[in-house]
């Protein structure tokens, strides 16, 4: 397993993160706990969750965070694991922005209660609100950092230009800095319309150049495109469920699938390992978030945890 670090944070973040979107809902607590055990046994340290995962409404706890909290406590793994969570997601029912100091205090209280932890290693604004300037967000953090033991703050689904603007304001005024980003980043491309969520942010050439020059750590969700490459290669495109087909089946991605299949045979690794390493071999610190629902899927993804693709191999995958 490989690791990255974030400025000002002592934790080691494994370059593969265990995603927990469906813990306690589509994934039972029993299976979730077994996934956490296996992930830790293989050297994984980064646990990615969010208050909204398994949350009934904006005033309830996260089922995902609760399971992770239970596991951390029962195994006393607080020092070994890097706890990553997110808050201030738009209202579940109305979609209305919830960005405010008061709501952040409430969300952090809920997360700390569910996680049963004395500290959160990395906390993300789960969404941006472009109607508010970046100063508004940073000013909230300046009030929060003295109240809650959050080591590092980040921005999830923010455009890189907004993150850069926030950096200028933070450094000029000696205020908290957004030191990490989380966006959709995968060899299989898609967009907000196909994902049925226009508030998501996606990797493109401009963003890739920015992350390369700024070396801002990036956490990539949907890194395996919901198994598009693994299932598409091993079981055939016709086997993919409707959600995967809607989001990822395109001429561009089908060509990428062929290139993944060819390289996986050359390197004698699984398609999952190729898809993950495409992310973790980026020219900036990167973490690929995976979302297995079975132990076999997790083990398959972790087989290539040490694989590093060179620039020529990454270029080949891009076509």
Summarize the structure.
By secondary structure, this protein is α/β, with parallel strands linked by helices. 43% of the residues lie in helices and 14% in strands.
- List the uncertain runs: none
Q: How much of the residues is beta strand, in percent?
A: 5-15%
Helix-strand makeup class: alpha/beta
C-alpha Rg (nearest Å) = 19 Å
Helix content: 40-55%
Largest sheet composition: 8 strands, parallel, barrel
Q: How many DSSP helices?
A: 13
Shape: globular
N-to-C CA distance: 28 Å
Biggest sheet, strands in spatial order?
A: 3-4-5-6-7-8-9-10
Give the strand tally. Answer: 10
Mean of residue pLDDT? 97
N to C succession of SSEs: EEEHEHEHEHEHEHHEHHHHEHH
Structural write-up:
The structure is a single chain. With 319 residues, the protein is of the alpha/beta class. It has 13 helices and ten strands. The strands form two sheets. The chain has an eight-stranded parallel β-barrel with strand order 3-4-5-6-7-8-9-10, surrounded by five helices. Strands 1-2 form a two-stranded antiparallel ribbon. Helix 4 (134-144) crosses helix 5 and helix 10 (251-267) crosses helix 11. The longest helix has 17 residues, at 251-267. The mean pLDDT is 97.
Explain the layout of strands and helices:
Elements: E1 3-4, E2 13-14, E3 16-19, H1 29-41, E4 46-48, H2 63-75, E5 82-87, H3 101-115, E6 120-125, H4 134-144, E7 150-156, H5 160-173, E8 178-184, H6 192-195, H7 205-214, E9 218-221, H8 228-234, H9 242-248, H10 251-267, H11 271-280, E10 286-290, H12 295-302, H13 311-318
Parallel strand pairs: 3-4, 3-10, 4-5, 5-6, 6-7, 7-8, 8-9, 9-10
Antiparallel strand pairs: 1-2
Helix pairs in contact: 1-12, 2-3, 4-5, 8-10, 10-11, 10-13
């Amino acid at each position: 397993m490989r690791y990255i670090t974030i400025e000002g944070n002592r934790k080691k973040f494994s370059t593969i993160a265990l995603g927990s979107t469906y813990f306690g809902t589509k994934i039972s607590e029993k299976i979730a706990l077994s996934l956490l055990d296996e992930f830790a046994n293989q050297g994984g340290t980064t646990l990615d969750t969010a208050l909204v995962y398994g949350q009934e409404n904006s005033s309830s706890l996260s089922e995902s965070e609760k399971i992770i909290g239970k596991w951390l406590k029962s195994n006393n793994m607080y020092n070994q694991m890097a706890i990553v969570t997110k808050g201030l997601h738009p209202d579940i029912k109305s979609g209305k922005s919830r960005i405010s100091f008061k709501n952040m205090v409430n969300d952090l209280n809920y997360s700390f209660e569910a996680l049963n932890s004395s500290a959160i290693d990395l906390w993300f604004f789960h969404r941006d609100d472009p109607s508010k300037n970046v100063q508004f967000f940073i000013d909230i953090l300046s009030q929060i950092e003295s109240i809650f033991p959050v080591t590092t703050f980040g921005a999830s689904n923010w455009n890189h230009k907004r993150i850069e603007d926030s950096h200028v304001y933070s450094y000029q005024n000696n205020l908290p800095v957004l030191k990490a980003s989380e966006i959709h980043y995968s060899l299989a491309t898609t967009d907000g319309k196909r994902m049925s969520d226009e508030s998501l942010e996606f990797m493109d050439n401009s963003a890739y150049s920015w992350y390369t020059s700024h070396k801002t750590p990036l956490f990539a969700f949907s890194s395996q495109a919901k198994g598009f490459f693994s299932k598409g290669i091993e079981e055939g495109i016709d086997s993919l469920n409707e959600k995967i087909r809607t989001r990822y089946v395109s001429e561009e991605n089908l060509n990428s699938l062929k290139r993944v299949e060819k390289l996986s045979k050359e390197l004698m690794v699984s398609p999952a390992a190729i898809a993950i390493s495409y992310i973790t071999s980026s020219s900036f610190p990167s973490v690929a978030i995976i979302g297995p629902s079975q132990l076999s899927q997790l083990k398959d993804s972790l087989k290539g945890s040490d694989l590093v693709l060179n620039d020529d191999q990454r270029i080949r995958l891009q076509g």
